[in-house]
Amino acid sequence: MLNKIFIPFAVMFLVLISTSALYAQGPTPGSGSLGSFLDNEQASVTPTPAASNAVARELAQDGYVAITSGPWYDEAGKALSNSVHVLMLGAAADPKSADGVKQIVSGFVALRSAYPNAANYHVLLLNGPNIYDASTTANALQLLSSQLITPDAFLKDVLNNIRTINLVRGSSSGSTSSAGATTTPVSAQSTATRVPTRVPTKATNACNAPADKARLWVKNGYSGTMRFTVGAPDVGFQKDFDIPADGQYHYIDLPPSAKYTYSASIPGVGKASERLPAYSAGQCYYLTFQP
Q1: N or C: the chain end with fewer CB closer than 10 Å?
Q2: Is 229:262 a contact under the CB 8 Å cutoff?
Q3: What is the reported pTM?
Q4: Residue 67, φ and ψ in degrees, nearest 5
């Protein structure tokens, strides 16, 4: 059943998101052995009313009604400059149905077109008492547009991590997506390989980044242990981690900086290195490495 849904929309999504990315960002950056996991530099973007109207107009062309769009918010209600959302009237009772998948795809494409520099994207579908939150990251979209992950794998990950918020009960359920700026999956911890990198802390179901640190979550979806190095010269941080091949997120707490770069190496797979966007204290960020 899932394959019947994924095959046509996976192909359509790859075409749409590639076209949108090229239109918004220009030529696709070069890639290394593992490909370009991130754009060379992702600047923060502050959503504007004009961009919000652009989202509504693009979705209206696909026959969808956008209720609101703009910045995403943290748990304290503070607008996040690097995360955006669109809330639409749901076209189907089941967001994982063919019509639901099509609407989610259209939402991502519209958000990516209006906010090409955002780091996190949320498509919210309102249906009865429920809001379905489908989310992804700029990193995942870059992997998709570079064809380092298949549309089928991308959509499966998005649908498996949809959150359901019940407006009557005031509760939420479902898996937590790696795409949200304020939500995090249960995770083990990274293990330092040269020198101790930080005081061990417990995994958590929420972001809970320290007030004075940025929390970076890294997932290795390959079959081999990944050597992950991250550093920023202006804050004197340069450390190595071994990220196990368990498909889970492992977090690293970092001093805030706009000059972080990383390198990732997996024996038998390849290497990648990129500059990261500005990391702010009290926020969570995500890097996903997978076929």
Answers
A1: N
A2: yes
A3: 0.50
A4: -80, -45
Q: Are strands 130-137 and 163-166 parallel, antiparallel or unpaired?
A: antiparallel
pLDDT for 99 equals 92
What SS3 class is residue 43? Answer: coil
Tokens of 117: 């520099």
Chain centroid, CA 81 distance in Å: 14
pLDDT single digits (tens) 90-107: 999 999 999 999 999 999
Domain boundaries, the chain: 2-173, 191-289
Beta carbons of 252 and 290 less than 8 angstroms apart = no
Contact predicate 124/85, CB 8 Å: yes
Q: How does pLDDT run across 162-191, given as a tens digit for each residue?
A: 988 888 876 555 543 333 333 333 333 344
CA distances (Å), origin 79, targets 25, 32, 75, 136: 24, 35, 10, 18
E-strand spans in the chain?
A: 66-73, 79-89, 120-127, 130-137, 163-166, 171-173, 191-192, 214-220, 226-232, 237-243, 249-254, 261-266, 270-275, 284-289
Residue 150 structure tokens: 């298949």
∠ CA(75), CA(123), CA(92), 5° rounding? 125
In this predicted structure, the answer to whether residue 280 has a pLDDT above a threshold of 60 is yes
Per residue in 84-94, pLDDT tens? 999 999 999 99
CATH, domain range 191-289: 2.60.40.1120
Task: Tell me the pLDDT tens digit for each residue of 269-278.
Answer: 888 888 999 9
Q: For position 188, what pLDDT does the model report?
A: 34
